[in-house]
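User: Hello! I'm new to structural biology and keep hearing that structure can be predicted from sequence alone. Could you demonstrate with alanine transaminase? Please show me the input and the output so I can see what each looks like.

Assistant: Of course. The first part below is the input, the amino acid sequence of alanine transaminase. The second part is the output, the predicted structure written as tokens.
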Amino acid sequence: MQLLLGSLHEMDSLLMLMIFFLQTEQVLGYELMMQLLIRNEKDGILVPIPQYPLYSASIALHGGSLVPYYLNESTGWGLEISDVKKQLEDARSRGIDVRALVVINPGNPTGQVLAEENQYDIVKFCKNEGLVLLADEVYQENIYADNKKFHSFKKIVRSLGYGEEDLPLVSYQSVSKGYYGECGKRGGYMEITGFSAPVREQIYKIASVNLCSNITGQILASLVMNPPKASDESYASYKAEKDGILASLARRAKALEIAFSKLEGITCNKAEGAMYLFPQICLPQKAIEAAKAANKAPDAFYALRLLESTGIVVVPGSGFGQVPGTWHFRCTILPQEEKIPAIISRFTVFHETFMAEYRD
């Protein structure tokens, strides 16, 4: 890492910094920014709910305050600026100094892709409110909806014509996500723009304390950042493999989305991107009471019964946060495509049996 950072110091004139995290993927980047942003419990970070739990855990670890804003499930997990502003104002009225806004696009666990117009609104909001924008963009290649396209927040910031220090932006990427999905091989990086030179210097210092990265992680990060070009001999095979993987993931997402939507008590938004579906489940009152008797959250009770009956693992929505009184679960689309029909069949049998058992 020291060698990588040494060469990056030469790019200071671009007011840009890219730091590579090759032992714990992009997680170290989040930790670094929480360390910089949070001084005490009066410092707050706006985080979407549902959220990837890394954010709440990292904020708690550094002694800050999580300021939640709820994504709108009825509009496909849309980010409503009016709600974010309301949460910001409420936090400030309680003496919390809100310092940053986290956006996950494409969404985890919700699988939505932000509209470009929405991104412009988000950037303008951060600029007007003096917030650092933390953009988790690790699933940017995984877009399945024909009417949606990934736009980086860096592109949005530049297209608005903001100056180099008008809006602090941190963008995250990972080698274990996207179409490559090299899970088990950890690596990631973050790019920062819009920070003043003294702040960038402190980021360099904190990043430099970490141990040097492993060779395979460096190679993977390099490949993710520099994929084959159309003029390269390997481009045809690379593109065929990439397109094949993404097309398969899209088919898996659609199959699960359709299957969930057919089941009693389950509603499921379209899978626009990332690797997840986050269906809402309306549980019978008897199931909720049984969960309470077992000292479990209702969605955790359902997920455990599913695991015990079928071997299928889903994560309860209560692990990500959700509107009070609603219940969800997160399902990945990662099982091999040929196994999806069997998974759907087992899930359907379980769900119908569960609902019949607890039906009021």
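User: So the tokens describe the shape?

Assistant: Right, they're a compact way of writing down the 3D structure. Reading them back into a model, for example: The radius of gyration is 21 Å.
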